[in-house]
């Protein structure tokens, strides 16, 4: 084999990195291809593949789908006794085993106690801030030594800016949840015991040793006997439930102590532990991971460029997961990616767009998006792997996040602070007024021009400092998605130091603002476009320019939520603003056209015709005239963007015409027309009566 292709399951360990090359040859020898390789999709078991000119093809029918559902049901039955997280059950199990609990507790206390002593020494000597980086690195090593539970806790803490300082976050983000492999004999026995079949009846070949090992299990590469398809087989580590259960029993007890006696930490530590433990225990049920992968595939793999491996249910149980093998290179291996003729930035952009859809459209997202779980396939697709830890964004928070971006663009820090209630960052009884100056100080310092120029890591780090200083409780979904986007930006920065993830994300936000009928987003769009009773054409122009960059942007849907509101019962105030803006635009177009027409007259004739005023007949100062022309040109540019967009129909703007036909519009329009006529008449009269300017005499 070439440089070892990454497996289709999580491979995030140094052990995998060191052993992969050494075992590449043995794996290649062990996996003998007994038949032509199948297409990389799941074949419903029990149905023979159809051969076409030597290639295996799989026809999908209603019967096959029914068999697939039946196979999934059988897999669920095999995992019926899978362990779930229950603090009460853990208390019953380990409350009667004091020696075992005390032994593990002593091991943990010695490791963490020595770390705590160092923190106290730092505090007493005034070196707390100076040694943050050093202590963060030490904590990373301690978590690695204490085993899989603490390795995962360290990874979880790396996404919690409300709990850990920045230096700790950066160190813990490098944590690898790797453990030594367990004996292959035990792994193969587990496969046979879980599936109720002999190894030879399932696989025509299987690698003699694992090609990847992580904290919860290890992965083998194999070939299915019935179809010849190459698969990845993940086998759970023996006794892992016992190890993790005991650790979380002890950790939860510590969390109860911290909640009661440590005032410096404002977050509910027990709630965070319960949430995280629940996710880790979910990872122990491989059937649930398979269902997660299927759901993720259904939601996101419809987009070109995203690959999600399929699951083989007949060979999956609570402790064994058989998944489509994916050849590819880890997304952080830029050199290998470029050797395949691929561009890392294209892959990162695919990941960003998929992450935004996960966060803000369906709300179901990959909660462990480290580089080992993202592969670049030879055909340029981005493969998402390891679906043990998934999370969901509450429906209300999806819109609130977009609104938060709008408020950031507008530098409306009071509204930003209020957003934290909707995002569940703050309890309703917390006063946000002290937080507003901190937000203003941070964002005024980093946003010099536009949000697209803001580096996402700078944003996360700076906002993390704010969260750390105030009584924020960052929801898990928000912390995890920040981590996802930060990881993607970090990968891109290796290829392009000037890459900005927010710039790559903004087309998506623009598209959602322009097209989403959600009332919250509709109001956010109106808030973005109108200020002090004036329409901000430059903002609409920018939104259209950015939105058109999103491949899912549809011009026929642009502005439809706002246009529909115009005619609705709640659109009265908006109708008044639209009427005023329409008359202002008419004035700008008319006066701008008059100004342009006057410029076509030669200078000497213009001076004679307009009584010595070479600027024209309007008697407008330069700034006023420039403002009129800029407004007119902006309107024309916006119309050009709409008109040249795919699927745009001018009839879509009919609601504006209907509003302009209303009596109040005609009345206001008449007043404006009368005002324009009066102003033109006054200007022309002033032009006629204008006396030549006298040159001031010099005084001695």
TrEMBL record:
Pfam families: ABC1. Residues 205-535 form the Protein kinase domain. SUPFAM superfamilies: Protein kinase-like (PK-like). It comes from the Eukaryota. One of its GO terms (molecular function) is protein kinase activity. Belongs to the protein kinase superfamily. ADCK protein kinase family. This is Protein kinase domain-containing protein. It comes from Trapa incisa.
């Amino acid at each position: 084999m070439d440089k070892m292709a990454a497996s289709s399951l999580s491979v995030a360990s140094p052990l995998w990195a060191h052993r992969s090359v050494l075992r590449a040859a043995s794996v290649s020898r062990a996996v003998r291809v007994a038949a032509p390789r199948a297409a990389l999709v799941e074949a419903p078991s029990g149905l023979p593949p159809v051969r076409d000119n030597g290639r295996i093809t799989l026809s999908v029918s209603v019967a096959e789908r029914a068999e697939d559902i039946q196979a999934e049901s059988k897999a669920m039955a095999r995992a019926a006794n899978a362990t779930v997280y229950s603090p009460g059950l853990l208390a019953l199990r380990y409350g009667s085993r004091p020696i075992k609990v005390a032994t593990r507790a002593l091991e943990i206390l010695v490791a963490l106690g020595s770390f705590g002593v160092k923190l106290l020494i730092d505090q007493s000597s005034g070196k707390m801030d100076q040694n943050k980086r050093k202590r963060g690195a030490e904590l990373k090593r301690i978590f690695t030594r204490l085993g899989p539970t603490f390795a995962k806790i360290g990874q979880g803490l790396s996404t919690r800016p409300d709990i850990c300082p920045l230096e700790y976050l950066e160190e813990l983000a490098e944590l690898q949840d790797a453990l030594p492999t367990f004996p292959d004999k035990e792994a193969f026995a587990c496969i046979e015991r879980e599936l109720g079949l002999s190894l030879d009846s399932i696989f025509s070949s299987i690698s003699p040793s694992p090609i990847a090992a992580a904290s919860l299990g290890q992965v083998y590469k194999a070939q299915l006997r019935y179809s010849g398809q190459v698969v990845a087989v993940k086998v759970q580590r023996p006794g892992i439930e016992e190890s993790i259960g005991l650790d979380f029993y002890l950790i939860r007890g510590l969390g109860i102590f911290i909640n009661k006696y440590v005032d410096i930490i404002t977050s509910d530590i027990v709630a965070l532990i319960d949430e995280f433990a629940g996710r880790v225990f979910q990872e122990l049920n491989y059937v649930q991971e398979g269902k997660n992968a299927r759901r993720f595939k259904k939601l996101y793999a419809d987009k070109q460029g995203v690959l999600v491996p399929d699951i083989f249910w007949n060979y999956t149980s609570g402790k064994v997961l058989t998944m489509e093998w994916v050849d590819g290179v880890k997304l952080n291996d830029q050199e290998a990616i470029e050797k395949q003729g691929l561009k890392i930035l294209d892959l990162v952009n695919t990941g960003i767009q998929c992450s935004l859809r996960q966060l803000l459209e369906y709300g179901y997202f990959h909660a462990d998006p480290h580089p080992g779980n993202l592969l670049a396939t030879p055909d340029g697709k981005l493969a998402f792997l390891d679906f043990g830890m998934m999370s969901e964004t509450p429906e209300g928070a999806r819109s609130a996040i977009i609104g938060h971006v709008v408020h950031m663009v507008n530098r409306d820090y009071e509204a930003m602070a209020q957003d934290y209630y909707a995002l569940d960052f703050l309890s309703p009884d917390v006063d946000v007024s002290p937080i507003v100056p901190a937000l203003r100080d941070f964002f005024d310092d980093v946003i010099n021009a536009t949000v697209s120029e803001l580096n996402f890591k700078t944003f996360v780090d700076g906002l993390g400092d704010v969260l750390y200083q105030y009584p924020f409780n960052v929801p898990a979904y928000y912390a995890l998605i920040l981590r996802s986007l930060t990881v993607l930006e970090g990968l891109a920065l290796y290829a392009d130091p000037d890459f900005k993830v927010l710039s790559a994300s903004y087309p998506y936000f623009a598209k959602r603002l322009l097209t989403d009928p959600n009332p919250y987003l509709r109001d956010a769009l109106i808030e973005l476009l109108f200020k002090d009773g004036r329409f901000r054409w430059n903002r609409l122009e920018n939104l259209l320019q950015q939105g058109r960059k999103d491949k899912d942007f549809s011009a026929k849907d642009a502005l439809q939520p706002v246009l529909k509101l115009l005619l609705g019962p709640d659109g009265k105030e908006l109708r008044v603003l639209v009427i005023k803006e329409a008359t202002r635009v008419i004035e700008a177009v008319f006066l701008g056209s008059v100004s342009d027409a006057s410029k076509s007259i030669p200078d000497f004739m213009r001076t004679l015709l307009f009584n010595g005023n070479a600027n024209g007949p309007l008697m407008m100062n330069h700034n006023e005239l420039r403002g009129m022309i800029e407004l007119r040109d902006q309107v024309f540019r916006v119309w050009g963007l709409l008109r040249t967009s795919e699927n745009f129909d001018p009839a879509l703007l009919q609601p504006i015409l209907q509003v302009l036909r209303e009596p109040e519009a005609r009345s206001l329009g008449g007043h404006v027309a009368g005002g324009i006529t009066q102003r033109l008449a006054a200007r022309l009269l002033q032009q006629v009566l204008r006396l030549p300017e006298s040159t001031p005499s010099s005084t001695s």
